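Teaching note: in complex prediction, the entire set of molecules is handled at once rather than each chain in isolation. The prompt given to students was simply: 'Predict the structure of this complex.' The entities are:
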Amino acid sequence: MQTLSFGNLKKARSLHRPGVSAQTGFPSAATHYAESTIDLHNELVTNREATFFIRIEGNGFEEFLISHNDVLVVDRSLHPRKNDLILAVIEGEFTVIQVCENHEESFQLWGVITYIIHKTR
Amino acid sequence: MIALVDCNSFYASCEQVFRPDLWGKPVVVLSNNDGCIIAANREAKALTHIPMFEPVFKIKTELKKHAVTSFSSNYTLYGEMSQRVVQILKRFSPLVEVYSIDESFVDFSNMKDLEYLTYGHTVKETIFKETGLPVGVGIAPTKVLAKMANRIAKKFHNQLQSVYVIDSEEKCVKALKWTKIEDVWGIGRKHAKRLWAVGVHTAFDFTKLSPAWVRKHMTVVGLRIWNELRGESCLNIQEIPADKKAIGTAKSFGKPIEDYTLIEEACAYYISEVAEVLRHQKSCANFVQVFLQTNRFNDKDLQYSNSCVVTLPVATDNTFELIAAANKGLKAVFKSGYRYKKVGVNLLGIIPKEYVQGNLFYQPKRNTEQLLKTFDHLNFRYGKSTLFSAQCGTRKKEWELRYQERSNRYTTRWSELLTVKSPEATDRHSK
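The expected output is the structure of the full assembly:
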């Protein structure tokens, strides 16, 4: 699917619009039910300008169900809520933490993790 | 009211977003071929005893001593981050003029009862939160004044938090008196000198000149600036960038080159780059200029430089025809026995595609339109140089620029994403 954009508005241009049969001239039965195919980017990325993809190396974040080579979808525009996983900066280094009420270490928020993309093979 | 939003030390800031270990530390970005510094952040600029404009190899030890981190320029990353900023600006107003990679004018004129100062802060904070890039915002009744307000916001960033609004006569006069005439947007050095001669030292002095004088000595362009400074808007917000009248590129080789065939390949590659820009703006070129030069800074080498313009039979946007023309030009200027430093190409006589005139004695190749469309489409989708003319060759490494310290293209390449090491991995590395 392609999108046409007008500033912030995006209009889907469906490339699989049911056509009119060249042979018979009859329109497809699906004509008025056409919708654009699911595009994962549109589903997983709600704010394009604020979203970054980050790859994780190593198995140190297994407690958060994040494995080696997983890609995190990180949205910087969100405000973290309790139990959110966030990408944080502690002493100049990136790390993943889960938001709770009292953190021992001070940290700076980089972005809120909204999805973990895990490759299975 | 018009806002000028610009990113603080844009290139360096883009690098720092992905490098929290460098937050608050001096960072510089180097020009193509790592020749000299083209951008420095506030911390680097504070090291005033380092001559930042000198070639990098001369100040390398100084930079190292002060723990300045340097990056090769990563225009792919900067371009993408710039687009993010522009898209965010479009949430605040439908009228945005992208003035440069790190500056945009935003038109607020059709927005009623706006609390400009608050709005300016919201713009600044949103951009910083979402992209990590610090910006300054200047808001004023005209573009030239907005530019001035932006300078003030930057200069007094501590007190003003990088946002300044000129919204009263009093503030306007204060700003005009504070701004030196040579710092006014659009006043070049030549005009500044003439103005000093008649006792004009600040923007305020300039506004007191008679319009007749300004028009006589500085043409209508100067008069527009004069009007803008007096609060009368005469420069419009241009949403659509003007098409380029000439498109060119010239980059130094990674090392001096004597081999004609290598230069030919580099030249074909540059033509491919500029032809893509040409097609993007739906234009055709009538002439191709090729120039070639040795390294004039190397006094041991024999020096030679030359250029030539090749006329095309019919204006074209076809990469292959343009390469053929450029080769003709290159052959004419090339002399063997020199160590060449740089080859450059310029497309000239650019006209809109629909105005291309035919040539009775020349039949252009047919059906190349679709080929070129597919060509551009594939290169956009799968990355630059997925498809290329065989003329460009495969020996790019032998002439290509050095990017020794280029950061990853974090936002455009799946294979170059920002990588975060989890604690165990770090342990393993240290063992």
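Point out the following to students. Chain B has a mean pLDDT of 89. Residues 260-280 of chain B form the longest helix (21 residues).
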